[in-house]
Design brief:
Blueprint: E1 5-10, E2 22-27, E3 35-45, H1 47-54, E4 72-80, E5 92-96, E6 108-112, E7 116-118, H2 125-130, H3 132-144, E8 156-161, H4 166-175, E9 180-186, H5 191-196, E10 201-204, H6 208-212, E11 221-226, H7 233-236, E12 240-248, H8 253-264, E13 270-273, H9 280-291, E14 299-304, H10 308-317, E15 323-327
Parallel strand pairs: 8-9, 8-11, 9-10, 11-12, 12-13, 14-15
Antiparallel strand pairs: 1-2, 3-4, 3-6, 3-15, 4-5, 5-7
Helix pairs in contact: 3-4, 3-9
The chain binds NADP nicotinamide-adenine-dinucleotide phosphate.
The site of NADP nicotinamide-adenine-dinucleotide phosphate has 31 residues, from helix 1, helix 3, helix 4 and strand 9.
């Protein structure tokens, strides 16, 4: 049985970073018919969490204040809504919440049955908590690039930018399950780390060679899984194959306009904005890849609940290596 009140972290306005995160006691949410109530064991942070606080997607998100941030959790089912069939009390699950509701930075949270997956015993709580948004995004981008994770299909040259980050480190591992040659960019301190994930070539983005994105072996990229920001089209363009595409995971207005213009002019090289609309079958798929040890969650740092603000500073810094975990 869940208590009536729980500890949670909320913010009440845009901006303010970690100092604006307030520790509060609020009512434990009531699961609807198609939801489960979870006792949260761990949450992971994503770059979009701090962007919502900064008001970058305003006025769409958050829908209202106060807002409990976070979308990714590992937890235990303590109550199941009346129509829930997949789970029962005591089940260990991984869940992805919508950005509209958030809710991860709390002792208890409600998850839709259709956005929760059983956590296999092979996956620890932090390993599981790292997966939802980042691994699903990597999976979606690579699927868009036509990568088949059983190694079949035509060979493709892939560039992955910010390969040391939450999305990027899963993207490198998943890309190498396919028939690919992977070039990756990261900072100098992570060159060996990203090679260890399976990348064939690694570029330090702070060197002039890295900034040019040129493959050391002269390959032209069929697809770029673009997890970094602020790289102009003019830098990508000469490095693409004749029909090369840049899948932009942080598309701004400029990217949307470039995409529209390239469509209108039937350009063969294209910038493709991509936003995750998660599907449960893909969630199950990536959890299974992790269960089978085909991909792993690399953890930047595990923060106790009492130091969640430090975790927030870390994700805001943009310098995480892998995933940032908050344990409850
Ligand atoms: N479209 C969608 O649906 C969707 C879903 C999820 C995430 N995203 C977006 O995808 C992006 C990546 O997310 P994330 O969670 O992976 O971020 P993250 O974990 O915060 O990425 C941090 C890593 O990126 C590296 N990095 C930063 N700038 C770089 C550059 N120019 N070149 C190479 N490496 C660089 C950093 O290395 P150093 O420390 O060495 O600088 C650090 O290791 C974010 O913008 C996020 O909002 C989009």
């Amino acid at each position: 049985m869940a208590p009536k009140l729980m500890n949670a972290i909320q913010y009440f306005r845009y901006g303010g970073g970690p100092a604006a995160l307030k520790r509060v006691k609020v009512a434990v949410p009531d699961p609807k018919a198609d939801e489960v109530l979870l006792k949260v064991e761990a949450a992971s942070l994503n770059a979009f969490d701090w962007k919502i606080q900064e008001g970058i997607p305003r006025p769409i998100l958050p829908r209202k204040f106060p807002y409990i941030p976070g979308t990714d959790v590992a937890g235990e089912v303590v109550q199941a809504g009346s129509s829930v069939k997949k789970f029962q009390v005591g089940d260990k699950v991984l869940a992805l919440f919508s950005h509209a509701t958030g809710g991860a930075l709390a002792e208890y949270a409600v998850a839709k049955e259709n956005m929760a997956v059983a956590r296999p015993p092979e996956l620890s709580v932090p390993e599981g908590a790292g997966l939802p948004l980042a691994a699903l995004t990597a999976h979606l981008a690579l699927t868009h690039a036509g990568i088949k994770f059983d190694g079949s299909g035509d060979r493709k040259n892939i560039l992955i930018t910010a390969a040391s980050g939450g999305v990027g480190h899963y993207a490198v591992q998943m890309a190498k399950l396919g028939n690919t040659h992977v070039t990756a960019t990261c900072g100098a301190r992570n060159l060996d780390f990203v090679k260890g994930l399976g990348a064939d070539e690694v570029l330090d983005y702070k060197t002039s060679e890295g900034a040019s994105l040129k493959s050391p072996s002269g390959k032209k990229y069929d697809y770029v899984i673009h997890c970094a920001m602020g790289i102009p089209w003019a830098t990508f363009e000469p490095n693409l194959s004749a029909t090369g595409k840049v899948i932009d995971l942080t598309p701004g207005l400029g990217a949307m306009m470039k995409f529209a213009m390239q469509k209108l002019t039937f350009s063969k090289k294209q910038l493709v904005p991509l936003i995750l609309f998660p599907k449960i079958e893909n969630f199950e798929y990536v959890v299974n890849l992790a269960k089978e040890r085909k991909i792993k969650t690399v953890i930047d740092l595990k923060h106790p609940w009492s130091e969640a603000e430090d975790a927030w500073s870390r994700i805001m810094s943009g310098h995480a290596t892998g995933k940032i975990i908050i344990e409850l």
